[in-house]
Specification:
The complex is a heterodimer. Chain A is mostly helical. Chain A is built from 8 helices and 2 strands. Chain A has one domain: Arp2/3 complex 21 kDa subunit ARPC3 (Orthogonal Bundle), CATH 1.10.1760.20. Chain A is globular, with a radius of gyration of 19 Å. Chain B has 9 helices and 2 strands. The termini of chain B are close together. Chains A and B meet through α1, α2, β1, α4 and α7 of A and α2, α5, α6, α8 and α9 of B. Chain B: Keywords: Cell membrane, Membrane, Transmembrane, Transmembrane helix.
Chain lengths: 230, 223
């Protein structure tokens, strides 16, 4: 769910807006390193993919359903800089063309659901990669755990922002408990589906998965000759 | 590339608001909503004024009011949240229709609903009166970095292609008797998401090669 206008007060909204602008500026430079002159078409298509994947509903129980946020998924698939760029683009387009998420809350939405999920997801993923064996099969579980962790962390950051600039009179501990509780559940779904999706991509096109590049780099070319040739 | 395509919220009409430069409309929206958000929620008359401004702008834009009201459903999850606040907030309670509600919670809920609704209405009006291409040109005039405008342009241009692909996958799954009802069906849906990523990424690579073969050097020509 996107943060609408008026949920946080004006100074906080402007503050998160400044953070978002700085983050996008850094991501623009970084994405050029990840994608060189392919940046515009590829990041654009990946942004369209993130938008579409948020429309894919996953049934939970008794008629309720949820959808992916996709920050950690994007980070593992295309790299952290490009992922920040893609998710930010999605929020800008949603705010301006679909009236989804307030325009003054755009910075908040980018910081919470674009920047935080992506960076936390990527940090956890890289940390796990150094621990887990360097095999293709460990990419998907690491991505799943990264996605799971990223969601409650974003929820906690929302509570922190709320403590600074919230406009409703709610007790912070109640809000924190409720937000983290709900988002741990959401995070489980996000984690499982991210792991499954990454596993399916790694099985077909491991070369497209940014997070699998280190593993791909250490793999050696294996030439198998048939019995007749030998 | 291509003629003007209306995006899903765009309402085709001829009005001064449709013709107004997009960058001015974006600035006006941002300024208006910032003022609304910064207004103390006790200033009830001010909100009546804001509503009058929006109603006036909508009247000038010739977008039917019903068209906008129908599309305000994006606000629903947030309304549900706002309605809960008076029940859980602190402070002295008041009796309303036999329910014990928090006074400050009621005020908070009013503030959230008023500001959120005005924000959604204003954003909808911008979306209904502005073509995606004009919006991009407006953002460019507002000094948004060229690369970001290009990325947005590609996203908007291929949004329908990619969501259409997702839709065809849904039809293909359904025509084979698939019906997602519980988490046991997640692997199938996750594989759809994976396939969608591969298709989108490969399409991006093809688009890039097609652009290179037409002389792309990192900047789009003005058109």
């Amino acid at each position: 769910m996107h943060v609408p206008d008026g949920f946080l007060d004006a100074p906080t909204s402007v503050g998160t807006g400044v953070v978002a602008v700085a983050a996008v500026a850094v991501a623009l430079r970084g994405a050029r390193r990840e994608l060189d002159d392919r940046t515009a078409p590829l990041a654009g298509l990946v942004a369209a993919f993130v938008f579409a994947v948020q429309m894919l509903n996953f049934p939970v129980a008794s008629g309720t359903s949820g959808h992916l946020m996709g920050g950690a998924l994007a980070a593992v698939l295309v790299g952290p800089y490009t992922a920040v760029l893609c998710t930010s683009t999605v929020f800008i387009v949603q705010a301006l063309l679909f009236a989804d998420g307030g325009i003054t809350a755009l910075g908040t939405n980018i910081v919470l659901m674009g920047l935080t999920t992506t960076l936390v997801g990527w940090a956890v993923f890289r940390a796990l990669q150094t621990v887990l064996p360097k095999r293709l099969s460990s990419v998907a579980p690491a991505a799943g755990v990264a996605a799971f962790v990223s969601v409650p962390v974003a929820a906690l950051l929302f509570v922190a922002l709320y403590a600074i600039g919230g406009t409703a009179d709610l007790s912070l501990s109640t809000l924190a408990t409720a937000m983290v509780g709900v988002h741990v559940l959401i995070g489980i779904g996000e984690g499982v589906i991210t792991a499954l999706a990454v596993a399916s991509i790694v099985a077909v096109r491991p070369d497209l998965v940014y997070g699998a590049r280190r593993v791909m780099a250490v793999r050696e070319l294996e030439v198998r000759t048939t019995g007749a040739a030998a | 590339m291509g003629g003007p395509h209306g995006h899903s919220l765009h309402f085709h009409a001829h009005s001064p608001l449709h013709r107004a430069p997009a960058h001015l409309k974006i600035l006006a929206l941002l300024g208006f909503v910032l003022v609304v958000v910064a207004t103390p929620r006790e200033w009830y008359w001010a909100y009546a004024g804001y509503l009058a401004v929006i109603v006036g702008v909508v009247a000038v834009s010739r977008v039917p009011v019903g068209y906008l009201l129908k599309r305000m459903v994006v606000e629903v999850p947030f309304v549900a949240f706002a309605v809960l606040i008076p029940f859980v907030a602190h402070g002295p309670r008041v009796e309303v229709l036999g329910l014990s509600l928090s006074e400050s919670g009621l005020l908070s809920a009013w503030g959230l609903l008023a500001k959120g609704t005005l924000g959604v209405l204003a954003s909808l009006t911008l979306a209904a009166t502005t073509e995606a291409q004009d919006l991009l040109r407006g953002l460019e005039r507002l000094r948004m970095p060229d690369l970001l405008v290009q990325i947005m342009g590609f996203m908007v241009r291929y949004l329908e292609v990619v969501t259409g692909e997702l839709q065809r996958m849904r039809v293909a799954r359904a025509s084979r008797g698939f019906d997602a009802r519980n988490p046991r069906h997640w692997p199938v849906l996750a594989r759809s998401a994976g396939a969608l990523f591969i298709r989108s990424y490969e399409r991006g690579e093809r688009v890039h090669l097609a652009m290179l073969s037409r002389g792309y050097t990192g900047r789009l020509p003005r058109s």
